[in-house]
Every structure is written in structure tokens, then in C-alpha cells.
């Protein structure tokens, strides 16, 4: 008799690339369970702070719970410190939040992207229980094993552990990075049943002077990748 | 002077207690536990999801000038390399280092907890730095209280305190050993071979760094689960200092350069007709 499992995998992939003064975070929008598609229109991206965006793939119920918890903690932080949380601070908060559920983990594979205190792009990548590191680019989710080798080949970011230290952010321009991400999803769609690229949400981040654009609903066209600017 | 002993209190998780994160000042975190009859079975299943990054090579040894600590940087999930740039040498505080082997999240979290809660609180409460003996003992006690719950930690605490250089091995079974040389991880047999045969107590810092680097390189050469960047740190009386971080692929060609062999017969293009 099969035991009740509290987990499910809703599939999908997330990618983030850090640049010199921007960060691109993208995810696909398919939510599935087994071979069934639950919806084609579910974003895995969530804005935690002005300069900090979370993208998670895995079990979407845990993802929702995690987003709510982090948003609440961020609100408390804002009330206590009168400012928004920086991306590195949110990075450590997410790591601790995940580890507090070490014995009943959140089944989410997260990528946190944004701008650090100096305005450089930063990407933090996590496993399900909170181990994290700052990297120049990352992919998580069902398509990650397909996307990561491609990004390794194209971006070839030097390891942050090397001494003398080399910059991990990519020298690409923002539009080049966006094109690269579109290509990633197009390739992953070819070989991963849980990832599609009919609609991919981007959140390119400029420096402090970014104004909010309203979410532009874009008609999905077959096999084409649209972007929604935020 | 009354010593602060809050760090010695049991860190056992409180059953049914809510997450105490908002409070922020409790010394020991309280973990939510799943309500299930079969805790061990559930942990076995849950751990499959995480597939903790094992497979590593870390080493540390004491010598005349202090402690040398080195590690690779590969994290693997089963057969997939999840990262080539994992920081396995964790800077607990400016004069103490911890190495990571076993579950990445477990090591990161408990070292961070050690540095921030245990060591810094001790310094503030007692107006002097905590010793390596003390820090490793507190970590070992904390890990012992979670024994059997599936944590996977194999760490070395290296530092310099009032008694000189200190090196302890601490693991998630609750074991704690004091010793002059340790290597932990899947690549440790290879590292031990190089380390033990080349070790002398009276080495200079450069010689010791080169020994550590070579030991990590040889382990990454033969162990598939180790690789990436070989980091070497030195802990001296003024604290730790990162000495080098070299890609092991480049180290290979540095130690075994490609010599062009003499050409005996050479094929050349012949112009048509």
C-alpha cells in the first residue's frame, strides 16, 4: 500500500544570469503533475524586495508558503530598519528559512537574483535545504541538467574561489543576456517535457532608476518566446 | 568571573514548537518536525530529494608555522556535478576555519551558527575569544544532540588560540578527535597518501602550502567526486589568510607539462597533380 507523500513535483525551470549592472531572471510558466498539465500560465517568479527576486521550481505549494514567509519577514525588516533588504541579506535569510525545515524540507529549488549593495548583478543558487552560494549564473528545475552545460559553455564564468580573484559576472550586455536566456529555454523545451517556452517571464533589473512598467499581457505564439517586462 | 554556559544547554528540538525565527536571539534553533508515525522512513525518503552533496576532499594539518587547511570545490548530486565552485572552507571568524564534508546545507548552517551564535556570544559574554577546543566541543555537543536524525557533517575546526595552533575533527555521529593531520571525504585516501609521505613538522609556509595543494590535486585526479578549485588557507597567530585558489585542471598541466615529442615522420600536403 503506497503511503501518502506530502510532496509533488510541478516541474519547470528557472534561470538567472548576473551582469555588471543588471540581473536577468527567467522562468517558464508550465505547472504540471506527472504527465498532466495543470496550467500553462503560472509564474514561478516572485519579487521579494526592490532589488531582489526569487524564482523557484519544484513543489509549487511549498514555493507559495516560502514566498509568503519571506515576504512577511521582509515586511518586519522594513518596519524595524526603515529600508529594503539587500539581496545578500535576503540570500542568507532564505538559506536559514530553508534550513529551519531541515527535517521536513521545502521541496523547492531556488534561484535568487538581484543587485547587490554596489549595484552589481548577483545570483544565489540553493538546494532544497538551504545550502547556497553566490554565482554568476544558475539554472534550477527539471530543465537544469540541460541548461547548465549550455550556460557553462557560453558564459564560462571563472570560479569565485580562484586567487587572484576574478569577476564572476558576465561581460555580456543585458540584451545579449536576454537572448541567451531565450535560447536556453528554447533548447530545454526540445528535450524536457516539463519545460515549455511559449511564455517566459523576464525581470531585467537596471540600476536604481528603474521605474515600474505595468505587466504587459502578451499573446503566446507557438514555440516563440515572449517577454514581459516588469 | 562567571562563565557563560548557555551554549552548553541542550540543543534538542522542541516537539511541536513553532519556528522561533522572529525572536532571533535564541541560542539553539527549534526545528519543525513532521507529524508522522514513521519519522525515520520519512527522513529516508526526504533525504533522497535533497541528495546531499557528498564526495569531497578536505585536509588540514598542524606544522611549525600554524595550521594549513585545504579543500576542493566540487559538489555532486548522485552523478551530476551540481557545482564546481562550492566554498568548502568556511570562515567561522577571523582566526578560525571550518571545513565542509557531507551535507552542504548541514555544514554551512552549523558553521554559520557556530560563528555567529556560539563564538561571538562567547566573546561578548566573556570578553575573550573562544578557544578551538571550546568551539569544537560545543559543535560536537550540538551535533550529538541531533544524532540519528540524518545530519551528515564531517568537519575539521582549525584555528589559533592562546595555546597555539589547534585542529579538531568533528562529525555528525558526535565524534570529536584532536590530532595533527586529518583528511575527510571521498578523496581522503588519496590525499592521505601524499600528505603523510611528504609531511614534516618543520616546513616553511610555502612548502606546507605546496604539500597541501598537491595532496588535493592528487585526490581530484583520482576521485571523480572531487574537483574544481583547490583552495589553500593558512592559520597563523594573526588569523587565517587565503594563500591560493587554483583550478585543478591547470595544476595538472603545471605539474605534468605537455612536452612536444620529437617528430620522426611528418605528413605534408602534396599539391595536386
Automatic annotation (TrEMBL), chain A:
InterPro entries: Ntn_hydrolases_N (IPR029055), Proteasome_bsu_CS (IPR016050), Proteasome_sua/b (IPR001353), Proteasome_suB-type (IPR023333). Its main location: cytoplasm. The chain crosses the membrane at residues 206-223. It is found in: Cytoplasm; Nucleus. It holds the Pfam family Proteasome. GO terms for cellular component: cytoplasm; nucleus; proteasome core complex. One of its GO terms (biological process) is proteolysis involved in protein catabolic process. Belongs to the peptidase T1B family. This is Proteasome subunit beta. It comes from Linum tenue.
UniProtKB/TrEMBL annotation, chain B:
It comes from the Eukaryota. One of its GO terms (biological process) is proteolysis involved in protein catabolic process. It catalyses: Cleavage of peptide bonds with very broad specificity. The active site is at residue 56. One of its GO terms (molecular function) is threonine-type endopeptidase activity. The keyword Lipid metabolism does not apply. Keywords: Cytoplasm, Hydrolase, Nucleus, Protease, Proteasome, Threonine protease, Zymogen. The proteasome is a multicatalytic proteinase complex which is characterized by its ability to cleave peptides with Arg, Phe, Tyr, Leu, and Glu adjacent to the leaving group at neutral or slightly basic pH. The proteasome has an ATP-dependent proteolytic activity. Component of the proteasome, a multicatalytic proteinase complex which is characterized by its ability to cleave peptides with Arg, Phe, Tyr, Leu, and Glu adjacent to the leaving group at neutral or slightly basic pH. The proteasome has an ATP-dependent proteolytic activity. Belongs to the peptidase T1B family. This is Proteasome subunit beta. It comes from Linum tenue.
Amino acid at each position: 500500500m503506497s503511503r501518502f507523500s506530502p510532496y509533488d513535483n510541478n516541474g519547470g525551470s528557472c534561470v538567472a544570469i548576473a551582469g555588471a549592472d543588471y540581473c536577468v531572471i527567467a522562468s517558464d510558466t508550465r505547472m504540471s503533475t506527472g504527465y498532466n498539465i495543470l496550467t500553462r500560465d503560472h509564474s514561478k517568479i516572485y519579487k521579494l524586495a526592490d532589488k531582489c527576486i526569487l524564482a523557484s521550481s519544484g513543489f509549487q505549494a511549498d514555493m507559495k508558503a516560502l514566498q509568503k514567509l519571506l515576504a512577511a519577514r521582509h515586511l518586519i525588516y522594513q518596519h524595524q530598519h526603515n529600508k529594503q533588504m539587500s539581496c545578500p541579506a535576503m540570500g542568507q535569510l532564505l538559506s536559514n528559512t530553508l534550513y529551519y525545515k531541515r527535517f521536513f524540507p521545502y521541496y523547492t529549488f531556488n534561484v535568487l537574483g538581484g543587485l547587490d549593495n554596489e549595484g552589481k548583478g548577483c545570483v544565489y543558487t540553493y538546494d532544497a535545504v538551504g545550502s547556497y552560494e553566490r554565482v554568476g549564473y544558475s539554472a534550477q528545475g527539471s530543465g537544469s541538467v540541460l541548461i547548465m552545460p549550455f550556460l557553462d559553455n557560453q558564459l564560462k564564468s571563472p570560479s569565485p574561489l580562484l586567487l587572484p580573484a576574478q569577476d564572476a559576472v558576465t561581460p555580456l550586455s543585458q540584451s545579449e543576456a536576454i537572448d541567451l536566456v531565450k535560447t536556453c529555454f528554447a533548447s530545454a523545451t526540445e528535450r524536457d517535457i516539463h519545460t515549455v517556452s511559449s511564455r517566459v517571464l523576464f525581470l531585467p533589473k537596471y540600476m536604481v532608476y528603474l521605474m515600474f512598467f505595468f505587466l504587459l499581457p502578451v499573446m503566446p505564439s507557438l514555440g516563440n518566446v515572449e517577454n514581459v517586462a516588469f | 568571573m562567571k562563565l557563560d554556559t548557555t551554549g552548553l544547554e541542550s540543543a534538542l528540538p522542541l516537539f511541536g514548537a513553532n519556528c522561533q525565527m522572529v525572536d532571533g536571539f535564541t541560542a539553539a534553533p527549534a526545528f519543525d518536525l513532521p507529524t508522522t508515525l514513521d519519522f525515520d522512513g520519512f527522513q529516508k525518503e526526504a533525504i533522497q530529494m535533497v541528495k546531499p552533496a557528498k564526495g569531497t576532499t578536505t585536509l588540514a594539518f598542524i606544522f611549525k608555522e600554524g595550521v594549513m587547511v585545504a579543500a576542493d570545490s566540487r559538489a555532486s548530486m548522485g552523478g551530476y556535478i551540481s557545482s564546481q565552485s562550492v566554498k568548502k572552507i568556511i570562515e567561522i571568524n577571523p582566526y578560525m576555519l571550518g571545513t565542509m564534508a557531507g551535507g552542504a546545507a548541514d555544514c554551512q548552517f552549523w558553521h554559520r551558527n557556530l560563528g555567529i551564535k556560539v563564538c561571538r556570544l562567547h566573546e561578548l559574554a566573556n570578553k575573550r575569544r573562544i578557544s578551538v577546543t571550546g568551539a569544537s566541543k560545543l559543535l560536537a555537543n550540538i551535533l550529538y544532540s541531533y544524532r540519528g536524525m540524518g545530519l551528515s557533517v564531517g568537519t575539521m575546526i582549525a584555528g589559533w588560540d592562546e595555546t597555539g595552533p589547534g585542529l579538531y575533527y568533528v562529525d555528525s555521529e558526535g565524534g570529536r578527535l584532536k590530532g595533527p593531520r586529518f583528511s575527510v571525504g571521498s578523496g581522503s585516501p588519496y590525499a592521505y597518501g601524499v600528505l603523510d609521505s611528504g609531511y614534516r613538522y618543520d616546513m616553511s609556509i610555502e612548502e606546507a602550502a605546496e604539500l597541501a595543494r598537491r595532496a588535493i590535486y592528487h585526490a581530484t585526479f583520482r576521485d571523480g567526486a572531487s574537483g574544481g578549485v583547490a583552495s589553500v588557507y593558512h592559520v597563523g597567530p594573526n588569523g587565517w589568510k587565503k594563500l591560493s585558489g587554483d583550478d585543478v585542471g591547470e595544476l595538472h598541466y603545471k605539474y605534468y607539462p605537455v612536452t612536444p615529442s620529437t617528430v620522426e615522420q611528418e605528413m605534408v600536403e602534396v599539391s595536386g597533380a
